[in-house]
């Protein structure tokens, strides 16, 4: 229980700090992060990339999604299946195939013939606020 409280406190503090970053600085940092990721061998070699669409003050993933699509990479995003309490993964061909979904996060609006599994994924890009020393996402 104490661990959950500590994680929530860390997440709250980090989100407060991140939310206070000016739009100009955030855009500069988003661009720097994107350029760094685009140069990674893991990104270059990946044929299918699972992106989590950013929202609020998270590092913007939308430009990375668009660039990946223009590079001919397969792009996959999750969609919340509220009925079954799971995330389903769908390939998109264009960012126009995204619409506001669960928690106002962009999600694919495509047919089940685009459904993918984790076995199809070469690389995952997930914006986050804080991580523990083992690299586990806190938020």
Task: List the defining traits of the structure above.
139 residues; Rossmann fold; 35% helix; alpha/beta; 5-stranded mixed β-sheet; 4 helices; 7 strands
Quick structural summary:
With 139 residues, the chain is α/β, with parallel strands linked by helices. The protein has a single domain, classed as 3-Layer(aba) Sandwich (Rossmann fold).
Plain-language structure description:
With 139 residues, the chain is of the alpha/beta class. It has a single domain (2-125), classed as NagB/RpiA/CoA transferase-like (Rossmann fold). It is 35% helix and 22% strand. The chain has four helices and seven strands; from the N terminus they run αααβαββββββ. The protein has helices at residues 2-19, 23-39, 41-45, 62-70; strands at residues 48-51, 74-81, 86-92, 98-100, 106-108, 115-116, 123-125. The strands form two sheets. The protein has a five-stranded mixed β-sheet. The longest helix is centred in the N-terminal third of the chain and has 18 residues, at 2-19. The protein is globular. The mean pLDDT is 92.
Outline the fold blueprint.
Layout: H1 2-19, H2 23-39, H3 41-45, E1 48-51, H4 62-70, E2 74-81, E3 86-92, E4 98-100, E5 106-108, E6 115-116, E7 123-125
Structural class: alpha/beta
Q: How does the overall form come out from the CA principal axes?
A: globular
The second-level CATH architecture is: 3-Layer(aba) Sandwich
According to CATH, the homologous superfamily is: NagB/RpiA/CoA transferase-like
Helix segment tally: 4
What is the mean pLDDT?
A: 92
What is the name of the CATH topology? Rossmann fold
How are the strands ordered across the major sheet? 6-3-2-1-7
Largest sheet: 5 strands, mixed
- Order of secondary-structure elements: HHHEHEEEEEE
User: Which CATH C-level class is it?
Assistant: Alpha Beta
The helix content, as a percent range, equals 25-40%
Q: State the domain count.
A: 1
DSSP E strands, number? 7
**pLDDT < 50 runs, ≥5 residues:** none
Specify Rg, calculated over alpha carbons. 16 Å
Determine the strand fraction and express it as a percent band. 15-25%
Q: How many angstroms does the end-to-end distance come to? A: 17 Å
């Amino acid at each position: 229980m104490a661990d959950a409280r500590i994680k929530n406190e860390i997440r709250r503090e980090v989100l407060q700090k991140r939310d206070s970053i000016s739009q100009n600085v955030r855009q500069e940092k988003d661009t720097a992060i994107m350029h760094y990721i685009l140069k990674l061998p893991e990104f270059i070699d990946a044929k299918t990339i699972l992106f989590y669409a950013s929202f609020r003050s998270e590092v913007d993933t939308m430009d990375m999604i668009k660039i990946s699509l223009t590079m001919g990479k397969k792009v996959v995003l999750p969609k919340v299946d509220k009925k079954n309490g799971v995330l389903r993964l769908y390939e998109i061909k264009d960012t126009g195939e995204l619409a506001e979904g669960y928690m106002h996060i962009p999600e694919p609006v495509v047919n089940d013939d685009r459904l993918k599994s984790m076995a199809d994924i070469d690389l995952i890009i997930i914006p986050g606020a804080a991580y523990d020393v083992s690299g586990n996402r806190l938020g």
